[in-house]
Amino acid sequence: MSDADGDRATMAEIAHAAGVSLATVSKVWNGRSDVSDRTRERVEEVLRVHGYRGRRAWAAEPAGTIDVIFSEIDCAWEGEHLRGIEAAGHEAGVRIVVSSLDRGETARRQLLQRLRAGRTDGAILATLTAAGPLVTALGRLNVPVVALDPACRTAGDLLSVDAANFAGARAATAHLLGLGHRRIGLIAGLAELMCSRARLDGFLAAHDDAGLSPDPELIVRGEFDFPSGMAVGGRLLDRDAPPTAIFAMSDFMAIGVYEAARIRGVSVPDQLSVVGFDDLPGARWAAPPLTTVRQPLREMGALAVRSALGLAEGGVLATELVVRESTAPV
């Protein structure tokens, strides 16, 4: 980890060698007081031994900027994250620069060129895999990186901010079971997504808690959007023995189920109960208002900013079941 071969030790390597978190290394490097003397001395010794210099901008004058990088920005879901990010950035006195990787490889190269120039104090990877070339490049730049709602499990040395997906799905399913529903359809997300796996586990756990087994034929997959919810929900409703309730892993898919039910003359909630996940602003204005699991999207965005600035160490925020008018007894 020396500079002899031209490679600088990264913050992650310093944290590993000192046996502390990335946030603690950030606090020591920036001279913050909320670190014990013993820990500070250990981190400073590791920094000295490995000749860690960091970026000139970090050592001298902060850039006053946090970069937020999305895979794409196309719905209210990203907007809710950004509301929390902007508010936390304003409170901390830093600018927020938003980038979207769906603009192609040229945009990615321009982003890395700007970061190499030392023009950021941290990067938030929103909904990305928190792995691959971009994260590796950021690690070489000694840029603090936070994974916001990561699509896949993050590396052990990367801070992350997530929601309690398992608990939320468990609560939603228990709500439907408590209303007497036994044939509950589940529209899951893509299997490779960490949130999809956690929500599926929560769905199964709620059945196990009740001493019941779900019908595997009623567990299908969608793509977290309206067309997917309408198509897959329609296939569930067209079965010889359709479900009496459907739990969709996103509000968009749940509203798609509404449309599939409307086309078939199925009344929500009289003939079909529907539960979503996210509690996006439109959920309360749906007809009928949607019962859903609230993800604290704004709070997650704010925590990601604080973590990038070394003021927090990431974490998992609680979800909450919001019961409205789309669910009723079987």
Characterize the largest beta sheet: strand count, sense, and whether it forms a barrel. Answer: 6 strands, parallel
The string of secondary-structure elements, in order, is HHHHEHEHEHEEHEHEHEHEEHEE
Number of strands: 12
Distance between the termini: 63 Å
List the helices and strands and how they pair.
Elements (H helix, E strand, L loop, with lengths): L10 H8 L3 H8 L7 H13 L6 H4 L5 E6 L5 H17 L2 E6 L4 H12 L6 E4 L6 H8 L4 E4 L10 E5 L1 H14 L5 E5 L5 H16 L9 E3 L4 H12 L7 E4 L2 H13 L9 E6 L12 E4 L2 H12 L6 E3 L2 E3 L8
Parallel strand pairs: 1-2, 1-3, 3-4, 4-5, 5-11, 6-7, 6-8, 8-9, 9-10
Antiparallel strand pairs: 10-12
Features:
330 residues, Rossmann fold, 42% helix, 6-stranded mixed sheet, 434 Repressor (Amino-terminal Domain), 12 helices, alpha/beta, 6-stranded parallel sheet
Polypeptide structure, described:
This protein is of the alpha/beta class and 330 residues long. Among the domains are: 1-54, 434 Repressor (Amino-terminal Domain) (Orthogonal Bundle), CATH 1.10.260.40; 165-295, 3-Layer(aba) Sandwich (Rossmann fold). It is 42% helix and 16% strand. It contains 12 helices and 12 strands. The strands form 2 sheets. It has a 6-stranded parallel beta sheet with strand order 2-1-3-4-5-11, sandwiched between helices. A 6-stranded mixed beta sheet has the order 7-6-8-9-10-12, sandwiched between helices. Strand 1 (65-70), helix 5 and strand 2 (95-100) form a beta-alpha-beta unit. Helix 1 crosses helix 3 and helix 10 crosses helix 11 (251-263). The longest helix is centred in the first third of the chain and has 17 residues, at 76-92. The termini are far apart. The model is unreliable at 1-7 and 55-60 (pLDDT under 50).
